[in-house]
Structure formats: structure tokens, C-alpha cells
Design goal:
This protein is an all-alpha fold. The protein has one domain. Helix content is 76%, strand content 0%. Helix 2 packs antiparallel against helix 3, helix 3 runs antiparallel to helix 4 and helix 5 runs antiparallel to helix 7. It starts with a helix and ends with a helix.
Length: 196
């Protein structure tokens, strides 16, 4: 496994976290606990283009490279769950990057631009969850006694869907969204070791 593949998930996480912290600190009145991440890249916000490039597009590109590279390393005859799982991981990564190319409109939450951004957000986690579950199934079928990959895929899928869909009521949108992103980036960091 090449070093670029091993470090792609870490590079994606570092780019995202750094952008959120630095640009969040630079925007007056912005709260990491209350506001969604995408507000830093919204139309009309200072430095929005740079934020979108560093927080969404670049990490999404790293994640897409990782999924594609993992998919190409699968041996011939690999069962469908592993192949499809990594294809869905690739789709999830592309949707993550798309969030940066489709910034929301903070002045109108029903605007077309905002709906496109929300669609990219939903596609990101909706593609990831079944992808991780298929990879968990593949890990179990390949090596039933190898529990860590199975657990990592299951925990990643459960955490993303929980924080993306359910936890907002109790934690608030800002915290829940960041935890969903953290779960995905955690899975990305582990993916080269657990996707085989």
C-alpha cells in the first residue's frame, strides 16, 4: 500500500479541521457550537471561497482518491459487497467535495443554492452509511474472527447516521454536524487498515 493512500484520510481530516478552526475564529460572531460548518463558506461571507476549497473540496478530493485507490487494490474476484461499498465511499467523498462547490445562501434558507447544498450534504451521508455497512459485511464474510474492521465500519455508519439525523434535537445543529463529520473523518483515517 503506497504512502499517499495511507495518509489520504489524515490529510483530509487535517485540512477540514484546520479550515473550520481558523476561518471560524476569523469570522466575527461565529460559534462552533451553534452554527453549521457550511456557514463559513456561504455566499457573501468573507473568505468563503478559500474556506470551501480547504474544508470541503480538498478533503473530498483526498477521500475520493482514497476510495478509488482502495477499490483498485481489490484482488480479482472480490465479492460484490466490498466493491460496491468502496464505490459508495467514493460517491460519498465526491458529495462531500460538492458541498464546497455549492455554497448555501444564508439570507434565504429556501433558495435554490441552499437546497443544492443540502442535497450534497444528504448525498454525502446517505452514500456513506450503506457503503460502510457493505464493507462491514465483506469484512465479516472474509474473516469472521477479525472483529476490528467489522466494528470500525459499523461504528462509522452508526455514528454518521446518528449525528446527521437524530442527535441534532439534543445536541444542536452545530455540535451534531461536527460529530457526524468527525465520525466520517475518523473512518477515513482508519479505512486503509480496515477496508481489506
Amino acid at each position: 500500500m503506497n504512502r499517499y493512500l495511507r495518509h489520504a484520510g489524515s490529510a483530509a481530516a487535517l485540512s477540514f479541521a484546520s479550515a473550520v478552526l481558523v476561518f471560524g475564529a476569523a469570522l466575527e460572531g461565529y460559534s462552533q457550537q451553534l452554527h453549521p460548518v457550511a456557514l463559513l463558506g456561504a455566499a457573501g461571507v468573507p473568505r468563503a471561497t478559500a474556506f470551501n476549497a480547504l474544508a470541503f473540496v480538498l478533503p473530498g478530493a483526498f477521500a475520493a482518491y482514497q476510495a478509488w485507490a482502495l477499490r483498485t487494490t481489490l484482488p480479482a474476484g472480490t465479492p460484490a459487497p466490498a466493491r460496491i461499498g468502496l464505490q459508495l465511499a467514493l460517491l460519498s467523498a465526491l458529495a462531500f467535495a460538492l458541498q464546497g462547490l455549492l455554497p448555501l445562501d444564508p439570507s434565504d434558507l429556501d433558495a435554490y443554492a441552499t437546497r443544492l447544498h443540502a442535497t450534497a450534504w444528504m448525498l454525502w451521508w446517505i452514500a456513506f452509511v450503506p457503503g460502510a455497512l457493505l464493507l462491514a459485511s465483506a469484512a465479516w464474510r472474509a474473516r469472521p474472527r477479525r472483529v476490528p474492521p467489522l466494528v470500525a465500519h459499523l461504528v462509522g455508519a452508526a455514528a454518521v447516521v446518528c449525528f446527521a439525523m437524530v442527535a441534532e434535537r439534543w445536541l444542536g445543529a452545530g455540535i451534531a454536524q461536527r460529530l457526524a463529520f468527525a465520525a466520517w473523518f475518523g473512518w477515513l483515517v482508519l479505512a486503509p487498515a480496515i477496508a481489506d
